[in-house]
Model the fold of this input.
Amino acid sequence: MEGNEESRMRPANECLLVIDVQNDFCPGGALAVEGGDQVVESINALMDDFSAVVLTQDWHPANHSSFAASHPGRSPFEMIELDYGEQVLWPAHCVQGSPGAAFHAGLRAERADMIIRKGFRPAIDSYSAFFENDRTTPTGLDGYLKSRGLDTLTLVGLATDFCVAYSAIDAARLGYRVSVIESACRAIDMDGSLAAARDDMKRAGVTLA
Done:
């Protein structure tokens, strides 16, 4: 048994990047992704294959600019123009310190070497684990990974067509070898967003496994 476990381990330069497996993105949450809780078991099993595990956590102030409630007369899922470009208006979700912002109770969050919180700046949203939505303000994840010699990333989590895809594309742009395990992700798929995200990831050189 021990030999089998050892043979499954990925090389030390590989990292499992777990994107936003939080209560608000799971069934019953404020911005639930259909089947979002179904990824937990697969992700927990994958954690045993990696010596490095990083989790991301959406972490918004209550008055975040991406919330429809912050724009009187606007509704969730409308598009607006902010200083950094187009922004989907979301239902309030993953508010700092709230139960909805917590990781799913079944996720082995204690396994994380690092937790990256994103979206905490009130005026700008953050889908990617690497950059805010202005595409230039860094989260600090790139520096952390490079300081540990981690150059190959496997992404899983929520949601495939937003935070997972943005993170994967940015990682590829930064020079990482990147794969996304689609069976350990779930998508919102809003107006064809999943197909578009898959095409964008493939064009960026991301492997869809």
